[in-house]
Amino acid sequence: MEVCKYLCESYPALTTAVDNSGGTVLQYCCSNGHMEVCKYLCESYPALTTAVDNDGRTVLHYSCGDGHMEVSKYLCESYPALTTAVDNSGGTVLQYCCSNGHMEVCKYLCESYPALTTAVDDDERTALHYSCAWGHMEVCKYLCESYPALTTAVTIYGVTVLHSSCIGGHMEVCKYLCESYPALTSAVYKSGCHCLHDIASSTSDVGLFTECETHVKQYLESTGSQYDITAILTNQGESVLDLAKERGTENNALYEYLVQLFGQQNH
Predict the structure, then answer these.
(1) Cα distance between residue 55 and residue 49, in whole Å
(2) Which of 128-156 are b and which e, b meaning 16 or more Cβ less than 10 Å from the residue's Cβ?
(3) What pLDDT score was predicted for residue 267?
(4) pTM over 0.85, yes/no
(5) What is the pLDDT of residues 173-209, one digit of tens each?
(6) Which domains does the chain have, with CATH numbers?
(7) Do residues 94 and 110 lie in contact, with contact meaning Cβ atoms separated by under 8 Å?
(8) Which InterPro entries does its entry note (predicted)?
């Protein structure tokens, strides 16, 4: 604080300086959770509170994204317009918080600013999409149980929260979603991709694939349908084996597993 105040007062031009990404001194301060410096800069140089970087991120995006509760709460209560600000892709402060798994800040934002729980970015991703995509189980479970409508939300491409977690290869979240919301295991997005396609194209994790496959099979059979892995195809007719092959065959345990599995199905 002492050094910061000295520089600000002795060299005032520094207070408006930005880095190559448009980041301000207040954004740096908020990103690291320095409450005393944050308050000093906000009160002494109020224009900094509305400044955004090149990606359209505000100081609140920074504090929420890095999980600094004290700074986030101060900014929300002192500058309420920041709570509805979005970045250049429509990303909200809650989405930033959820993408990094900050439970305390997430809960505060949800309870204090409930409109954020239904807000979507330009691709119509919800806060739950973000937490699932990055594998944050505690935040994911809280959002699912507190705001159940989020579990059926899809992006403009038809991507579900299960798809998001499968693409990221997050076993714990995938298992939770499959067990708690089994209908998600049959969902496909606009290209026809199924959650098993996502795993095959994004990971080489045999354990994740077999875990999700078990739930896919159970759900299909519970609806009176038969499970046939070779019949799960994208709109272009690609199987999970095709997508695993496209990802690369070298050191790809999942590809090797699927080759054997498809071979058994064909006999």
Answers:
(1) 16
(2) bbbbbbbbbbebbbbbbeebeebbebbbe
(3) 42
(4) yes
(5) 999 999 999 999 999 999 999 999 999 999 999 999 9
(6) 1-91 (1.25.40.20), 151-266 (1.25.40.20)
(7) yes
(8) Ankyrin_rpt (IPR002110), Ankyrin_rpt-contain_sf (IPR036770)
